[in-house]
Amino acid sequence: MPLTTVADAPLTGRTTRWDYASLDPAAHRLYLAHLGDSVVTVFDTQTRKVVADVSDVSHVHGVLFVPELGRVYASATGTDEVVAIDPATLKITARVPAGDYPDGMAYAPEVHKLYVSDEHGGTDTVIDVRTNTRVATIPLGGEVGNTQYDPVSKHIFANVQTRKQLVEIDPATDKVIGHIDLPGAEGNHGLYIDPATHLAFIACEDNDKLIVVDLSNKRVLSTFDVAKDPDVLAFDRSLGWLYVAGESGEVSLFHLQGQVLTPVATAVLGPNAHVVAVDETTHRAYFPLKSLAGKPQLRITEPQR
């Protein structure tokens, strides 16, 4: 793996599970879902220290900083709701009912709506961020993996794991307008969309595959073997590096040039390194680790020079 560990920074709390991460590079803040402790941990990437823990976010899974709103959203799976957090005060400002087991989130700016994967409920919950109220529930017909916004089509895409499909939603109507079959997918959960190439990258957690989909032509381009139990994906656009982080502690790295994706390496990065966030300015990648030398720590890497 062509990465150097810059630091292992201490994190707060117990040696319990971490989940999604979301970066605010302008403010040098990384928001981390500490699922096992039911808090959103706020980490300063300049000082490499924890700023605060926002508590009372029960079994927090998803976390998303929305720069257009200057707001953070987190999915509280324990209470089946989404909470809004003010980054200035680091206080919860709203609680919105979601569906069964809310997980990943995506924001569609044109319609001011947040889309939330209700993994067990088989739906996407739609929240109007202007009022922080639920305005729609979209049935997707199966267990829902991650949900992402596509800036090219201005549509929402969601993994439907039990149907081996990527589903397309029109935010103007909150209706499903298309399905893309994913042959060979088992547990298609992780999702990242690159607007420059209009490709979707899908991590299949049950058979350790990465599926590449051309969203313009609605077809699968390629399939790759990846780190065992892949979960979260992150992309450094200026380098063309795609990270696929696995529950096994392995991470797979790919290089994207045009629409051609090439494997670089797969290697063990750290215990339970299934979450990754990347700062495209510094090229540093952040991996929260449940237990490193008996303590929760944030492994910070950068490309080898």
From TrEMBL:
Which SUPFAM superfamilies does the annotation name?
A: C-terminal (heme d1) domain of cytochrome cd1-nitrite reductase
Source superkingdom? Bacteria
Report the protein name in the record. Answer: YncE family protein
